[in-house]
């Protein structure tokens, strides 16, 4: 478990922050809207070093790590970059680049215009670190009740297992032994639960799985004052880290769906943005099937994370048909045909729904019944635990 560090208001310690500590502080900014502006007129634009500077500055201020004199000087300067604090943050950015967490964006025909801040990319090392952090953060929810959430059928509340007990270590599957864990936690209070308190029961694992995570990135995922897209990305990164470190025989791909649908590589996942506006569920399912068709695995599944009803589809001539008002029969019929195709190919669809409109609930139930999958009605606060526990339950068999 990463050590928890408290910093006093002493100037010198800003220079001692390690790159991993800096990245951990700005994790939410990198994954969320602070660095990835969903309203940018150019949806393909990548964040620039000015965005990164602002994210680090905000993180330092929020954590009360900036000495008073440095903060006062930065506030009085024409630009924070011209202050001593700005120089220290520039040093942190250089440290991130030197240690292999970020790199200048590879030019694709033009590069940054005159006067523009250079853009940057997250490296594979950063993606792996963010996946590890996301998985570690989500672990805190295991073993606790998730009020307000329920499933429509066959919810796996835990992972079937039997075998020897052992203390949890990072990388282990979270087959919690509830009685042993609670016996450690109750004397000091559930609010003080820590990773050292977790006790797991070892299990055997079988079967390989091919999974496509279908991420809704339509505009509704950030509307109404709630960011639903950042938790969805955190879940995807955590799942990628879990599979890479524990289930090397499994495969994982990511598909974004909005007006249309496209595959996104893991290296780009952290910085993808919300938009365009509509929800082309049929297009996402069709692309997911194409990706799974290439896999030779025992189990094929689609994990669909969404908050909206289908409102768009791709016509045979490539045009996008859209109707955001109610469940359009044409859109619904085309979407359900893709669901039926999944069923014929033996692909299970597990849906994680971040909204509860009656029409939407009915639509999700039809998907679930058609593919013998599962449907979870969750929130941005607990979707991570539900996705990870569902995946792990599918990987476990009872040891005789």
Question: Would you mind describing this structure in some detail?
Answer:
- The chain contains 13 helices and 15 strands.
- The protein is of the alpha/beta class.
- It folds into three domains: 112 residues, no CATH class; 39 residues, no CATH class; 194 residues, Rossmann fold (3-Layer(aba) Sandwich).
- A seven-stranded mixed sheet has the order 3-14-13-10-7-8-9, sandwiched between helices.
- Strand 11 and strand 12 form a beta hairpin.
- Helix 3 packs across helix 5 and helix 6 packs across helix 8.
Write the layout of secondary structure elements.
Blueprint: H1 19-25, H2 27-31, H3 49-62, H4 68-76, H5 84-98, E1 102-104, E2 120-122, H6 124-139, E3 150-151, E4 165-167, H7 178-185, E5 199-201, E6 204-205, E7 209-216, H8 229-246, E8 251-257, E9 261-263, H9 266-269, H10 281-293, E10 299-306, E11 312-314, E12 320-322, H11 329-344, E13 347-353, H12 358-371, E14 374-377, H13 383-395, E15 396-397
Parallel strand pairs: 7-8, 7-10, 10-13, 13-14
Antiparallel strand pairs: 1-2, 3-14, 4-5, 6-15, 8-9, 11-12
Helix pairs in contact: 3-5, 6-8, 8-13, 10-11, 11-12
């Amino acid at each position: 478990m990463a050590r928890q560090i408290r910093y006093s208001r002493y100037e010198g310690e800003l220079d001692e922050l390690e790159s991993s500590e800096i990245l951990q502080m700005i994790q939410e900014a990198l994954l969320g809207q602070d660095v990835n502006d969903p309203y940018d007129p150019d949806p393909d634009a990548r964040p620039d070093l000015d965005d990164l500077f602002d994210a680090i500055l905000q993180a330092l201020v929020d954590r009360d790590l900036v000495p008073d004199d440095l903060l006062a000087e930065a506030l009085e300067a024409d630009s924070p970059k011209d202050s001593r604090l700005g120089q220290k943050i520039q040093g942190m950015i250089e440290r991130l680049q030197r240690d292999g967490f970020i790199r200048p964006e590879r030019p694709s025909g033009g590069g940054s215009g005159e006067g523009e801040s250079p853009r940057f990319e997250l490296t594979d090392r950063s993606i792996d670190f963010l996946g590890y952090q996301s998985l570690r953060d989500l672990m805190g929810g295991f073993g606790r009740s998730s009020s307000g959430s329920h499933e429509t059928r066959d919810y796996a509340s835990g992972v079937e297992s039997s075998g020897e007990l052992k203390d949890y270590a990072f990388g282990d599957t979270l087959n919690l032994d509830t009685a042993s864990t609670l016996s450690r936690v109750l004397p000091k209070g559930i609010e003080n639960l820590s990773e050292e308190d977790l006790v797991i029961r070892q299990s055997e694992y079988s079967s390989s799985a091919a999974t496509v995570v279908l991420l809704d990135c339509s505009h509704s995922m950030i509307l109404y004052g709630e960011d639903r897209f950042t938790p969805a990305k955190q879940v995807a990164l955590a799942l990628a880290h879990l599979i890479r470190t524990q289930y090397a025989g499994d495969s994982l791909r990511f598909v974004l769906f909005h007006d249309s649908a496209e595959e996104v590589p893991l290296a780009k996942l952290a910085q993808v943005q919300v938009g365009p506006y509509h929800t082309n569920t049929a297009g996402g399912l069709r692309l997911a099937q194409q990706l799974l068709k290439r896999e030779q695995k025992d189990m094929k599944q689609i994990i669909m994370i969404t908050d909206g009803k289908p409102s768009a589809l791709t016509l045979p001539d490539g045009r996008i048909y859209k109707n955001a008002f109610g469940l359009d029969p044409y859109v619904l019929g085309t979407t359900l045909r893709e669901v039926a195709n999944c069923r014929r190919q033996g692909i299970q669809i597990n849906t994680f729904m971040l909204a509860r409109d009656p029409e939407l609930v009915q639509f999700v139930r039809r998907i679930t019944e058609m593919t013998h999958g599962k449907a979870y009605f969750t929130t941005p606060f607990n979707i991570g635990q539900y996705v990870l526990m569902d995946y792990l339950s599918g990987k476990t068999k009872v040891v005789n």
